[in-house]
Amino acid sequence: MNYPTISVTAQLPAPIRRPWRPRWRTPLEEQFGQIPGIVQMTSSSTLGFTSVTVQFDLSRNVDGAAADVLAAINAAGGQLPPNMTYPPTIRKVNPADTPILVLAVTPTWCR
Questions:
Q1: What's the CA gap between 36 and 65, in Å, rounded?
Q2: Helix, strand, or coil (residue 111)
Q3: What's the CATH number where 104 sits?
């Protein structure tokens, strides 16, 4: 079964990156929480970057869910950091396509 899932990412421009504070991610999460049919919402943050994944009930159409998420992003817009160069982006995701293993390779001369 493919649950309709939407991934939302947002970032601050490189010169002014700093750790995301929960108060910046919260407006998005609060708006997403008002959308009907949410089964699960997860989020994570790193330096200058945040990601929120919203999974919907099987009865929801993924296109309708994406439209609702876009509307929620617009509603939260005034509460997001003013120095964001680009608005948050969304992507339709198939949770079954998640990789089992992710590797990072670093040359030894970088140490």
A1: 9
A2: coil
A3: 3.30.70.1430
Q: Count how many residues are written for the chain.
A: 111
Residue given tokens 């899932």 in the structure block? 5
**For 66-91, how does the pLDDT look when each residue is reduced to its tens digit (9 = 90+)?**
999 999 999 998 888 777 777 899 99
Is residue 23 helix, strand or coil? helix
Q: Report the C-alpha gap between 27 and 100 in whole angstroms.
A: 31
Domain count of the fold of the chain: 1
* Cα–Cα nearest to 39, from 58, 23, 20: 58
The tens digit of pLDDT for each residue in 11-40 reads: 876 655 555 454 556 788 999 999 999 999
State the residue range of the domain holding 89.
Answer: 5-110
